[in-house]
Amino acid sequence: TAGGGVMADWSRQRTWNEVVEGEELPPLSFPLSVYRLVVAAAGTRDFNAIHHNTAYAQTTGAPEIYANTMFLQGMWERCVREYIGLEGTIRRIAGFRMRSFTLVGETVVVRASVSRKWREEDAGFLEITIHSETSRGITVGPGTVTATLPVEQSDAL
Fold first, then answer.
1. Residue 44 CB neighbours (<10 A)
2. Confidence band (pLDDT; 50, 70, 90) for 1?
3. Which candidate, 114, 76, 112, places its Cα nearest to that of 96?
4. Residue in 122, 93, 92, 143 with CA at minimum distance from that of residue 17
5. What percent of the chain has pLDDT over 90?
6. Which residues, listed in sequence order, are joined to residue 138 by a DSSP beta bridge?
7. Peptide bond into 142 cis (omega under 30)
8. Which of 105, 104, 95 is nearest to 73 (CA)?
9. What is the DSSP string of 40-97?
10. 3-state SS of the chain: helix, strand, coil percent to 5?
11. Cα–Cα distance measured from residue 83 to residue 113, given in angstroms and rounded to the nearest whole number
């Protein structure tokens, strides 16, 4: 798939009841080609030359062109969305901090795990710890995503 992994099964919805604290989400890989960075920057209307022009990026202190913020955040959202399914909701993203450039030619791997789960009335909440890494280490995060999942009726009472 485009993210470098098994495509999500959108016909099946994960429920809050199935989730186990400490469970790892399937990691997603994103190889960063020039084409992918240009398309991502254009798709988010980020026309800054640092995302598509090596010579210009280097004048700003970057070693090469690099992924833009919205693309990197989208990687986190895709990782979580494939885990929580279409009926889950993403409520909050926190700790999204770029530590280093995510450069063309690298492969970004998004890794996440369920750090906590809890109930508030009829809603099932998850806190997911997440980060992006390349061969050079963590490039974005670590942060957290707060999400909800449907609760099976038998436990909703």
1. 15
2. very low
3. 76
4. 122
5. 81
6. 133
7. yes
8. 95
9. HHHHTT---GGGT-HHHHHHTT-SS-B--HHHHHHHHHHHHHHHH-TT-EEEEEE---
10. 25, 35, 40
11. 10
> Cα dihedral sign for 37, 39, 41, 47?
positive
How far is CA 135 from each of CA 29, 93, 124, 154, rounded to the nearest angstrom?
Answer: 12, 24, 35, 45
Residue range 116-122: mean pLDDT, rounded: 94
Q: Which two tokens stand for residue 131?
A: 């980060």
Nearest 5°: the CA angle 31, 21, 88 is: 65
Token code pair at residue 101: 């450039």
SS3 39: helix
DSSP code of residue 26: P
List, for residues 59-93, the tens digit of each pLDDT value: 999 999 999 999 999 999 999 999 999 999 999 99
Q: Against a cut of 0.70, is the pTM above it?
A: yes
